[in-house]
Fold:
Amino acid sequence: MQFFFDMVLILDSTIRLSIPLLLACLAGLYSERAGIVDIGLEGKLLGSAFGAAAATAVTGNPWIGLLAGVGVAMAFSGIHGLASINLRGNQTISGVALNFLAAGLTAFLGQSWFGRGGETPPLTGPQRLSPIQWPYAAELGAFADNADNNPLLRIPAEIYSELISGQNILTYFAFLAVPLTAFVLFRTRFGLRLRAVGENPKALDTAGISVTLLRYQALVITAVLVGIGGTYLSIAQSAGFTPDMSNGRGYIALAALIFAKWRPWPALLVCLLFGFLDALQFRLQGINFAVVGQVPVQFIQMLPYILTIILLAGFIGRAIAPKASGIPYVKER
Amino acid sequence: MSTRVPLPLWVDVALLPLLNVLLAFIIGGLIVLAVGQNPLEALNIMLTGAFGSGRGFGYTLYYTTDFIFAGLAVSLAYHAGMFNIGPEGQAYLGGLGVILIALPLNGMHWALMFPLFIIGGAAFGALWALIPGVLQAKRGSHIVITTILFNLIATPLMNFIISRILRPAGVQSDESAPIEMISRIPRLRDFIPFFGSAPANLTIFVAIGTLVGFYWLVWRSKFGYAMRALGHNPTATRYAGISISKMIIITMVISGALAGLVAVNHTGGAAEGRLILNFVGGAGFVGIAVAFMGRAHPVGVGLAAILFGALTQGGLELAFSMPSVTRDMIVTIQAMVILFTGAMGDMLRIPLERLFGRFSSAEAK
Structure:
């Protein structure tokens, strides 16, 4: 019995840990489907996390923070677009440069502005985006605590009060973004063109549709999604910015994207899986195992990365990227 | 629109990178200005810190040594069409190779130890690059993502090895037992007192030799030819009867070995003389900037490494003298160097081509 209730708690933190990953992964989905590789997701996450926390710390309003977070991601996407669409530069290098830029600038500006070793001041109460309580969630939660003898009643009550209710508005947005992305990508004319520009930009160009414009549109959607992901990191999941708080999530999101073969629904599943591994990692620290005893914390920290490598190398079959992805489009002269 | 004329060689290899770096510095200066500090004063502190004294210059050379190895590691993979983002982790593992050789043989004369350090560092760096290489060659895993993940794995792994296994009883900080003085690579100041307390050591000569060897390997050897062919056109390379997966693996192994040599400078050098937690300190990432600025050519890499060595040393002095300008400002400038020289290389090239096109057509009249 206890196992199920532990499970609900682990699933709850699974959702919390999956959200920034999912948003970054969907963000990467749009840009890679449009033919632009975005290694810079990591930097965009970090930069927007800083922008959101800094703006919130100064104004006290988390919605201004959200705007600032998306704004930072927009600026980064603008640089990336200029380099890889207009100047036809190497997209991987541009992304790596953006990651460096985010790491350097957030630490530097954070220290200059707030003088707390790169951290922003802690955010409290209404300065954060707080959980939304669904109707009767509290009552059901109390009911679950009392009805310990009937698991059939208790488990749905727990799921409603702990998992479905009490999440953040950005969490609900992230889950909504999955069907929305599937619809936009596969059911609209814009989505058809977006996929086409990642496979065969020349065909679109011949049809008189601007490759440049479409790719910039994709980058704007990317920026909005990853900007919300970064904002989630600093003002919803945590209470402020700490240096390097994206901690490789942008890279894991890219791996998840490959693993999901650039499709939205599998992306949701893979991100939940990675979130689950991460949640498990926190749970496993300090627990004694039957044969090996206590596993050193460092090995548990490595676990998600090692599993990512194994999954990437072994279990996905052939992942075929959008054909034009990573290749700048050169109009014939 | 005027016709595009190829730029003269000196503009392409010297003026253009210089202008790009200048641009990075100007924007960096504006950021320093934006937080209310004087960028010219900052520049002055940096230059004096890097070149103003024998000690400062010695530190610059010490960092330059690191960046030559890391820059060559990135450059080599780049010639084969691969982007190795893993020198940071490969250098870290290289430290393990050096210390595992040094501790059992502790007390032997440095002249015998030095080559063994090189072998140990290179072997472990190569091992850490071998796995992503094999995964790319055999399973098609993207080298960029796997090398990043290997960096992320190297940190906790080395953390565990240093703090739980190598740390001697009674030592408080996370580091291995020291290598005895006689076994350590001597500092330059042992021969030239000018360098003061700077940690620059004989490894810099290995770095210079590696630059020459790199040139021979890439442009004069059969292997280098096959590697560059792979970088330009993988399909043609396969039709030429060259095994692509074998080339990928060998290239990654050599690239990782080069990165592993960073550890010789630190772990085997007299400055540290032991394996220390996080000793690489971002040198592997700086290698990416060095490789792009140096156009993956040994002469360019050497010059870019000196620039970044000076930037690092000057930046540390800056952080010391102007506390509101932290070391992270240097990371920001490095990022912009990568951006302008690597990804936005055409931004200044196109106007320059127009400018020179106008000159040459004026001469023709």
Observations:
- The CA atoms of residues 162 and 273 of chain B lie 14 Å apart.
- The mean pLDDT of chain B is 90.
- Chain B has 15 helices and no strands.
